[in-house]
Recover the amino acids of this structure.
């Protein structure tokens, strides 16, 4: 946080107190209403609650750096399939950190900031945004961890316009 | 999706068209305003945009099954540290799938539904909710991938009350 700011976590905690004080959604089920799983980036600008208009209870939302189909996602998505999910939207976005930083830049930074040799680690950067979506959709479709009746489509979200564009249809 | 519903993805796409039509946040930066990173579950009921009152641009949000500190999270969180994050909130929740399903149950399901032997895979279930938070906070704090000046705290979110309770202070 900027050194001159008040503690942001304290303000989040206060916001939760206000939310809980008016909460009326305690009957929502573990199984989401639509069964759709959204995989997107952890970037603060890219929040599907807003850009897809999703209230609580509507869809499973997974977010990591880039919205990449990682080993972890493939493993843990099975639990979501157990809860009935048969539809996935993979959503990458413009101006993403994974498009700005190369593995070499990240390796240099871990060595300088952590004293950590991460040269054997792939941080999953990409150079072509549409292709990164196509690659991840293909990885999901061909994974033995994903049921054959799961439909997957891919999109790019533009942080300048707020608009999501389809790259790969189901 | 339930077989009698209309396509939920089509309605999400329409919601995005409405969002983009009124969008006025195109100047937000890649670096989030608070630098806080939130790690929580992909459960549809557990959305920090709502329960912490976070508008776009406010905080990095990572979500996976359970909100667990996985190898992937530890790897990809470094990119968020490159963008200035020095504060993490780990938030697990009541009525989580990872508290309902054991590894044995999940292994049986992958064999029955996918023909996949996942017996060597840990799907990260837990039996004690508060302890799962403490374990994940400890894992983050001791990881060589995390800068020593990163502060981590842990919480439980109650899906019945909408209230978040601190388990581990920074």
């Amino acid at each position: 946080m900027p050194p001159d700011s008040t503690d942001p976590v304290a303000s989040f905690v206060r916001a939760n107190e206000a939310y809980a004080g008016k909460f009326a959604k305690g009957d929502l089920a573990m199984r989401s209403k639509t069964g759709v799983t959204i995989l997107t980036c952890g970037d603060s600008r890219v929040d599907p609650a807003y850009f897809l208009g999703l209230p609580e209870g509507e869809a499973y939302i997974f977010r990591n750096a880039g919205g990449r189909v990682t080993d972890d996602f493939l493993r843990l998505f099975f639990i979501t399939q157990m809860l009935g999910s048969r539809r996935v939207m993979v959503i990458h976005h413009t101006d993403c950190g994974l498009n700005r930083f190369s593995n070499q830049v990240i390796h240099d930074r871990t060595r300088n900031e952590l004293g950590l040799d991460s040269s054997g680690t792939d941080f999953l950067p990409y150079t072509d945004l549409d292709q990164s979506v196509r690659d991840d959709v293909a990885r999901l479709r061909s994974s033995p961890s994903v049921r054959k009746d799961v439909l997957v489509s891919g999109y790019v979200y533009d942080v300048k316009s707020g608009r999501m564009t389809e790259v790969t249809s189901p």
User: Anything to note?
Assistant: Chain A has six helices and five strands.
